[in-house]
Amino acid sequence: MPPVHSQTQLLIVGGGPGGYVAAIRAAQLGIQTTLVEGAQLGGTCLNVGCIPSKALIHAAEAYAQARQPSSLGIRCEGVQLDLAQTLAWKDGIVAKLTGGVGALLRRHGVTVLQGWAELVDGKTVDVRGAEEAVQRIRCEHLLLAAGSTEVALPFLPFGAGNGRVVSSTEALAFAEVPRQLVVVGAGYIGLELGTVWRKLGAEVTVVEAQDRLLPAYDADLVKPVAQSLARLGVKSLLAHRVEGLNAAGDALSVREPSGALIELPADKILVAVGRKPRTEGWGMERLMLDMNGRAVKVDAQCRTSMRNVWAIGDLCGEPLLAHRAMAQGEMVAELIAGQPRRFEPASIPAVCFTDPEIVVAGHTPASAEAAGLKVLQASFPFAANGRALSLEAPEGFVRVVARADNHLILGWQAVGAAVSELSAAFGLSLEMGARLEDVAHTIHAHPTLGEAVQEACLRALGHALHI
Ligand code: FAD
Ligand code: NAD
Question: Which residues belong to CATH 3.30.390.30 in the chain?
Fold first, then answer.
């Protein structure tokens, strides 16, 4: 059957946070927009990423709280987990949010095509939906927002061992709590989901190739997380090398640093060793775009090496974060509408939703030093913060990094309960070019965790009040 032809000003491939935000913003600016999504609107983030993982983190914490002895005088007897209900609740949140994205796109007049896009050239895309007919679409601007996929280990492929070896997608929907879960990779996904299943009752062992947990993060920030994992009973095997399934296919063979080979019996093995841009299987190579390793190379306006072909989000490589994808999507829409924009954020905050949480924004003391900057740094511990104590969360601290000469704030780090919410204050202070004095002289409501932010600045200035 000959392809159906249609024409659009902007064609977006991928309806994840990058693509759908770009579509909404473009439509707001009067750009005729078509968005093609092969799976579900909302992408990795809403369907099998940020949202379902955070829902499970919350549910697992509620269950763990109900089960653990409490010093608050609260006793719960006979606490039970109805995992099917937990998963249904999580799926309900996903459905609500993805349905909301669909409604927003419709309301803005975006044409949404359900189907897989195949690039023909920089202005022509074929879309294959459920029916046989292929739609051929011509566009003035092409925005690539196809996201990323999980990295597989060649010697431990997904599905091996009768479905024992899984990715994060399956680990967000185990039908029952695994008795023994082995997690390969102590990064974001490994620790977030490892903690979930431990709190829900699994025996969890984390195997990490490097010699510490969350190797991409500052060691001081990771310490409270490592302590908490040990308290929870999560076993961490660091500097261990995964070799594959054993002969029986029911355990993971792992090489210890000493060279000895051990076997870790497991009914599930979560491989979480990173994600890679989705650059294959949809004709992207036909465009012969300049690449940056496995990622599409873009400039500060998310332009690729081909005129009027743009790329955003995970497809462009690190950092693989939903808020980065959204910010880029919004910017590209505004550029196409003729607005002067560049993607030069003062920081892209990152949060690890471990227990406790970690948040970083801007420079750490080490990265500032590596950049040749002379800095001041100061930390304020949550052990001296009234709100943290009243939340039974005295662990962790807030740290500020500022230029030594003019006190311009260059970065923030925090670890502690609910510190993800401090990322807004951190991002804002960096984006607005705040100095230590600006934050130190801002009245922070009492009692809040945010007072630790103010106190860190006061401490950097040499006059902390509560320590
Ligand atoms: P995606 O969300 O991957 O969307 C791409 C979309 O394109 C997909 O829907 C896909 O189906 C579609 N697509 C691909 N190819 C085609 C084609 N040829 N035709 C049609 N459609 C196509 N980030 C955070 O910031 N915070 C978190 O807490 C967080 N938690 C995460 C937890 C997990 C378990 C995972 C896996 C990821 C998490 N992330 C988190 C990362 C986050 O999900 C991604 O950074 C984000 O989704 C990237 O957005 P994107 O729009 O670039 O791509
Ligand atoms: P990651 O890069 O965070 O961690 C991967 C870990 O696996 C690293 O510690 C690495 O040293 C280890 N590793 C690599 N190969 C190994 C091997 N053969 N054996 C043992 N360990 C090995 O990757 P991820 O956890 O898969 O997450 C993927 C991406 O998704 C992240 O880059 C992140 O951007 C995004 N994500 C973000 C959040 C969040 O923002 N809270 C949550 C989940 C995922």
Answer: 350-460
